[in-house]
Amino acid sequence: LNDFEQGSENIRLWMNTVEEDLQKQHSTNDAHANHQSFIAIEVDVDNHSPIINNLLTLGHCLLKENDFYQQNRDTISRTVQNLEQRWNALKQLLTKRKLELNIVQDPWRSIDEAIKRAGNMITDHEHFLTEIKRTSGDGLQGVRDEYKNLENLKKKLDNDEKEIQQITKDYSDILHAHPKADKNGEKLLRIKELNRRWEGLNETVHESMKNLKYMLSIHGDFQLTQDSLAVWLTDLEVVLTNLEHLSEAPLNDKLQQLN
């Protein structure tokens, strides 16, 4: 009986502590801290489960004894009943808190996965950009090929832009619902680094295309000038040929052609 009473008092105090911890967790929005705290509470509850089951078994055994006064029997019965009710209520509260925590943790994990995917995507684009510059040939055709490949890469970047924007939007939505969800700023730093790399990649592609387009434009202007000079030289050659024929003609023919 003494073991039962002492054990019941210890469990009662322990349950008070666990319920207070779960209540504190519910009143905060620090997702990371809540997750770590909940894991510790869950482990603690699992460790106490056999202790409580043994205590309840002891209580039911004492109720079957005939050596107790009715007053003791009533006390044991109430203690067992209260213990069972609080234990079941605690397990239900634990399940409820776990579901509430998952409401935050699930989209948080989704953002984690999205950041990793976007990081890998940027790395692939960076490697592709390096490969374009490495494999481009020399001369005018090499410039044209590089510009064409960069045009295709730019289309991919424009298409992937929405994935980068979605990460920032999802992060803002979570913080709006749970202001302290990223209390240590770890996710924000990763998203900023992601945006920095993305902007750097787009700027590099833009500048490369701008330079190549300028080179192609200069070549186009040169080609037009070259063609114009070729036409002018042909016309000049005809004039010179005519003058040469004129200089060799008799005087009367010269006067007639000049007239």
From TrEMBL:
Assigned keywords, A-Z: Coiled coil, Membrane, Repeat, Transmembrane, Transmembrane helix
GO molecular function terms attached to this record: actin filament binding
- UniProt-listed GO biological process terms: negative regulation of cell population proliferation; nuclear migration
Q: Which domain of life is it from?
A: Eukaryota
Pfam assignment, any one: Spectrin
Output the SMART domains linked to this UniProt entry.
SPEC (SM00150)
Q: Write out the annotated subcellular location.
A: Membrane
Query: What is this protein's name?
Result: Dystrophin
Task: Supply the source organism for this entry.
Answer: Adineta steineri
Question: Which taxonomic lineage does the organism of this UniProt entry have?
Answer: Eukaryota, Metazoa, Spiralia, Gnathifera, Rotifera
